[in-house]
Amino acid sequence: MCIAKANSASGMAVSDECKLKFLELKAKRNFRFIVFKIEEKIQQVKVERLGQPGESYDDLTASLPDDDCRYAVFDFDFITDENCQKSKIFFISWSPDTSRVRNKMLYASSKDRFKRELDGIQLELQATDPSEMSIDIIKGRAI
User: Fold this and answer.
1) Where are the membrane-spanning stretches (predicted)?
2) Each residue of 98-129: pLDDT tens digit?
């Protein structure tokens, strides 16, 4: 049985699985990324896809629909100018221009509360088009 807390701002709940899988990504590095979807019928944010450690940022972007909104977290590994291995966890709010207005409003009104449930997010990116979330943008924000 899954217990979820209601989001007072939008009436949206966050499944425990969302928080548990995020903790696994953050602490154990079991996943490269997680894609989250709002299940409107049950008023809950759920895990839609888990990206395995060997998967890439391209795999994440390919798993985002062209015409619907999603949230995602991505564990980005990079090497600093001082040759140090680092990692940053990005929160991505995907809201393509082609998605329904109702969905855009639903995701926008639930975003801040959902983000607060995921303790450890370091950077945020909002995108309405794939060009707004290219790997070069991710690298530029991380460094």
Assistant:
1) none
2) 999 999 999 999 999 999 999 999 999 999 99
**Shortest CA distance to 26 belongs to which of 83, 88, 106?**
88
Q: Give the strands of the sheet with 44-51, arranged side by side.
A: 4-6, 13-15, 44-51, 33-39, 70-79, 85-94, 123-127
- How far apart, in whole angstroms, are the C-alpha atoms of residue 85 and residue 83? 7
> One-letter amino acid identity for 110?
S
Q: Which amino acid is at 115?
A: K
Give the tokens for residue 127: 């995108």
Residues in CB range of 133: below 8 A, 6 or more apart: 61, 92, 94, 125, 127
